[in-house]
Amino acid sequence: MKRYSLFAIAREAFSHHQGWERAWRSPAPKVAYDAVIIGAGGHGLATAYYLGKNHGITNVAILEKGWLGGGNTGRNTTIIRSNYLQDPSAAIYEKSRSLYETLSQDLNYNVMFSPRGVMMLAQTHHEVRGYLRTAHANALQGVVTEFISPARVKDLCPILNIDGPRYPILGALWQPRGGTGRHDAVAWGYARACSDMGMDIIQHCEVTGVRSENGVVTGVDTTKGFIGTKKLGIVVAGHSGQVAQMAGFRLPVESMALQALVSEPIKPCMDVVVMANTVHGYMSQSDKGEMVIGGGTDGFNNYTQRGSFQHIEETLRALIETFPMLSRLKMLRQWGGIVDMTGDRSPIISKTPLGNCFINCGWGTGGFKAIPGSGWAMAELMAKGEPGPLAAAFDMGRFREGRFIDESVAAGVAH
Amino acid sequence: MSDAVSPISAAGSEGFARVRQIGPLGMVTLRAKAGTKGLKAAVKDATGCALPDKRRIVTKGAFRAGWMSPDEYLLILPRADVAKALAAIAKALNGQHHLAVDVSDARAVFRIEGAKADQVLRKLCPVDFDRLAAGELRRTRAAQVAAAFWRDDAGFTLVCFRSVAGYMGDLLRLCAQPGSEL
Amino acid sequence: MLLLTCPYCGVEAEETELAPGGEAHLKRFGPGSSDDQFEAYLFARKNPKGVHFERWRHAYGCGKWFLAARCTATLEVFGTYPAQTSGPPDDIIARIKARRPDWKGFA
Amino acid sequence: MSTRLTTGGRLIDRAAPIDFSFNGKRLSGFAGDTLASALLANDQMLVGRSFKYHRPRGIVASGAEEPNALVNLGHGARAEPNQRATTTELFDRLQARSQNHWPSLEFDVGVLNKHAARLLPGGFYYKTFIHPRAAWKHLFEPIIRQTAGLGAAPKDGDADRYEQVYAFCDLLVVGGGVAGLHAALVAARAGARVWLVEQSAQWGGRAPVDGDLIDGVPAADWVDAAVAELAGMAHVTLRARTMAAGVYDHGYVLLDERLADHTPGDGRPRHRLWRMRAGKIIAATGAIERPLSFACNDVPGVMLASALRDYLVNWAVVPGQRTVVVTNNDDAYRTAIALHQAGQTIAAVIDARDQAEGALPAQARACGIRVETGKSIARVKGGKRVTGVEVCRQTGDGTISNFLACDAVAMSGGWSPVVHLYSHCGGKLIWDDAGAMFRPDAAHPPITHDGRAMVIAAGAANGALRTAVADADAQVRIALKELGVKARKAKAPRQDLPDEAALQPVWIMPQAATLGLRAKAWLDFQNDVKVSDVQLAAREGYQSVEHTKRYTTLGMATDQGKLSNINGLAVLSEALNEPVPQVGTTTFRPPYAPVPLGALAGEARGAVFQPLRKTPMDDWHAAQGATFEPVGLWRRPYCYSHPNETPQQAVAREVKNTRQALGLLDASTLGKIIVKGPDAGRFLDMLYTNVMSSLPVGRCRYGLMCNEQGFLSDDGVVARIDADTWLCHTTSGGADRIHGWMEDWLQCEWWDWQVFTANVTEQYAQVAVVGPNARKVLEKLGGMDVSQDALPFMAWTDGSLAGFGCRVYRISFSGELSYEIAVPADQGAAFWQACHDAGAALGAMPYGTEALHIMRAEKGFIMIGDETDGTVTPQDLGLDWAVSKKKADFLGKRGQERRFLASPERWKLVGFETLDGSVIPDGAYVAAAGTNANGQRHVQGRVTSTYHSPTLGRGIAMGLLLDGPDRMGEVVSFAKVDGSTVQARVVSPVFYDKHGEKQNV
What we know:
Radius of gyration of chain A: 21 Å
Largest interface: A-D, 118 and 119 residues
Oligomer: heterotetramer
Strand order of the largest sheet of chain B: 1-2-8-11-10-9
CATH class of the largest domain in chain A: Alpha Beta
Number of helices of chain A: 11
CATH class of chain B: Alpha Beta
Shape of chain B: elongated
Number of helices of chain B: 4
Order of helices and strands of chain A: HEHEEHHEHEHEEHEEEEHEEEEHEEEHH
CATH superfamily of chain B: Probable tRNA modification gtpase trme, domain 1
Structural class of chain B: alpha+beta
């Protein structure tokens, strides 16, 4: 693999950039692999990458029905944070965040991780208490967060109206090492590294069936023929239920549309990520200058990658109240992604009823930030057949036992 | 005992339509399944009105009976007549499963009047006003709260919950501002 | 922005007048049920990409819960019907089959 | 020299001059001008800088597709970045500033010369700035951010207001060109309820500009007649300046009407967002001309041929004195002919086709215009404006054959139908080889709720570039048929257009352009994406059209690729050696053109941002200067500070006064639901964890509700009113949720049970009269017996106090002698005042929510939302006594039997008393020894409520602790965020009046 660097660019500039090689190969599938991963989104590619890097398993195919990174990886609001309340969540998101810190160097691909800081506004007394609780939990979990004053909030984000008549800002939970990344680059960087390890990324290859014998997966039928495998990982986000159905089991997930939008680009005016849960909205400014805004989730099952517009309106009302200067900016583009929501809104990284089949799903609205950590934990599960400490709590069995990992507790809502 | 005080004290306003709060009115929520024995009589005795059909409101002078859901009616009457109405209902529906309760204080009522009164509500309610039938009681959403209204005498009567009377008054005035005619 | 007709009051209501309520025709399991049954009741969802039966409440209207048959892939609506039914009515099944000949039926 | 001609201009009113300024320079135009036409009339060719290389940019187009002419408009509370000059109507004293340059538009230090630009090919940032790690955050990213971003961020809120309106129609026709007008006429004459919207201020679209004849009359006259006829029909709505921004499911369309953009400050809402629900949508949105990709096609003065024609015909503006037209089709000859007829000089028409023998080329030649076929532009010369073009053979590599001096270039690469609205909800497109364009695939339209087509494209938007009216006629008839509307039989108007020869697709000019030329051939003018960038992406494996788009940023600028997408796609398909349809298109997403966020938020700002629920006593609270806090959508007094008193001091005073004398609380927000019927008792036994059916009439009982998981969701006091009627109190803000919960079970599960519910929360104002003097004040109010005998603890009765008809409950959430009195809401304020008047001599003071919280915590009463968080069971809180063991079933019972909930290792409620009397910090955890496998400290408990108790003069807390009730007396340590600890003793959560003597007197 030709390494990327400023010098490489300078060298290539003389030949009008004719010398760059492909970032990843486009091979035809082999007859069989040691491991097949369904889904070449961020999570699937990261799983493959850590299978190779941490466990030496490189005879791997990653199957993608569309183009790699084209699902939720390519349509999220790119927020990276780990200020979660519950121990299992904090562990995996913090692992993820720490992997993001060096991901550009690890992959030799600039994923533009930008640790500009994430603040979650507290706008009611109840929310203040919730975030103080998270701050205490984070201190014991080794996650660096701090509950900051309204003055500090204003200092970090001057365009905020902290004296809103309805919901004045009472403080914020501040994670200085949270931030954003370039979503496409994460998928592309992992893809390039996987391809470089000899793994086959097979795009436009839809899985149409999962074959198993005696409770063990033997391979998958695809639009490019049957592909045999010793291990199968299902990492397909919004379509998890569909693939699980092919494998013969039902998941505690529902697929719903989550929406986002960007404004037209403007000069830098906001250096941090702000989340306002009381009024339901979050926003950051991309390197291009667009205000990147996350909206709400529809309450009904939907596979259309477009949602209902009232959620966009609700979000914008909330954000204009919080950031009055937004009013004359313009919405450039809005879109939706299909997220899979579990019974406790926390993910699943789990064994399945099939012995050599593993599933990673249910990231709901929070998948992008988890990509490296999720891949790390899923790779460990696939390699060893048993979950490591990062994945252990995210098994499917928790729903039967009532052992929830409920983060809504921290979102400042009672239930 | 003091006089009843309306939810908001602000005076009416003149925009391109006239908005004012009216009342206090008497209101009774009556819940009974259609076909309940004595239901017709109960509504008649309480209001003098016939039992309204689906989504209709029947008017008889100062008395009204509106269809709210398959097993719910809203009776509107002078405040002083509420006790009498409740007694009449109890009598007519004696022994039948029903629920009748005074909700006079739980509501705020607005009048929106003028040739363009509908335009005010078009800004707030996802309702096709061109297709709103005469005598139709429409329950819907007005901006961010629940509301019910009907059309009569060159205007609309709108009912919402008492606690959001201020919000509703502000909204109606805002939407009736001169210069924002549709 | 869905448009669903409330089978009780006949209003063709837009989504903002409604509240979604998840999968329809779930059977409640209480005390005495097995872990499997209870887990399935609370969590296992069909989540189909295609014909789906679901609950809606006409929250800003007559307040009644009703059920809808809808395609989650196209958002096409096959019909709505009262909540007081244990399975989809025949006319709705027929309508779905007419439009989705390969639909496997309600199970 | 760009200038205004002395005659002509169908849209301008020369009698109405308008002053405006650009970059502080005073300029003038006419009413009817756009900012773009006025700038051109003033020879302001240079209007901005590109996003990445900061190259000089001029106006390219005449409508919403314009990528370059974006300005900062207005100032202060009316400052708006990225406003498109081509769609901005000129108004008096308009102030515009160019963007994305420093220090000035003419001299920008950000400009990258060709050598530096070469270092920044598409996707360059992914390949560099990797080392050193810290440099990205601290060095590279800030530089990139500063150079990107276009317009300046507004600083203030918005001076304008917005509104939204719901609208309904049978047929929405989008586009006021001749196709749209005709479609609307057919539908309107058939009696359908029709809306016709047009994004610009004028009707007619291109036809009047091109001088078409319709039914033998000039298009402009035909348009006037059509508009007049439509305007005269009551069931037709016409809206100009109204853009269909997005099509959503089930016929929902957002229409953005620009009411006062051109009349700022006139008191009208600035924009009005129509939330249209249409039975069917006709997209008669026309087509957009494509640029051609030749080197330096981005130099100011290079424009779309159609735009140049628009400026000439509509505004009498010509961007140059000597124009070169470059084309691959006949249509562009119209521009040459129009310029010639206006007395302008055409240097030549450069036609990439080997032959140009159609009617229009013939007419051009007849005008004496030089036509060079088989030729293309190798390179445009000039910096901040065109000085000439180098001409070469289209089939070659760019070897220059001749040079043509000129100061404007009109280019045409063919036309692309505007398919956005067709695509927003999933309509499919097909590639039309003849027209080299994507057009709607009528076999795969976006469908609506009934499974039928939601959007039908008509006219040029449907690919019928030259038969727009006839196509519109056919399409509207299809639409009407599906709507069940019978259309009158009539022949479609005849459009008389000269014959046109086929266009020849030209994606790169010349065909075999050298690397150097391709690296200068712009596809996306705003984002600086060139032919070479797309080819690089293809070479590097970013071969999906979405990969290419994202890697190069093609089509991601504020014009969303209206000019660049098809050209980029075609270049990609050539690079991949795959046909265009196989490469596919990117997804079209709303909005069609950017819409102000303020318009999308609508009226909901300031006072009506959200509904604010107020109790009947709210005015009193406000008059007393209460500090409010939101509780759901309610606002409640948090405390009532006296002058010179901090909120903390006020709270302490309110607690002490209530405990020592008399406190009055506005408890009106408490939820109140009547449950009545033969099965009501049975129903409540299912809803509550304890038994409610056995509650005697006249008595009250505290009850808990769980969800099916078994976790606590609400609590409150239930009163039995009569044999089959109960009144259930819920938490403040919980009434609607719990009422909905009840109705859900009654309607969907137990629909054969005879139970009716009614939410009467707002029917009553409720006052808690609390403290040792509570009874005295009620006696003073007089009217009923409120003695312990007549009204014992946990009983209720109806009666009257001071003439107010009321219901009095002997319940206590403070531990004091307490009455809660419900009166009709309309009398709430008066009753509240009466209580204060009567209580004045007894020490009555109001108290707020914080004092309420403290007093309940002193008593060890749980608070839903504090002690519970959705993961806590009644058993966790020591409320086993309120969970029936006898009932076979209740909501949550089965859930509580699950392993994790039934585990003996759950954290349980206890009290905590700090050894030093301090207050345990909110949210603190009790750490345990060691760490888990993920390196996190083990924990064994946490605080749930923690306060300074004014009554006890020290910190008190409740919390959950592993094996808590078995550890009374043990000292545990709470970890503070700073790493230090607070030692606290495990005690009973009841800190005050442990035996409940005070409340029951």
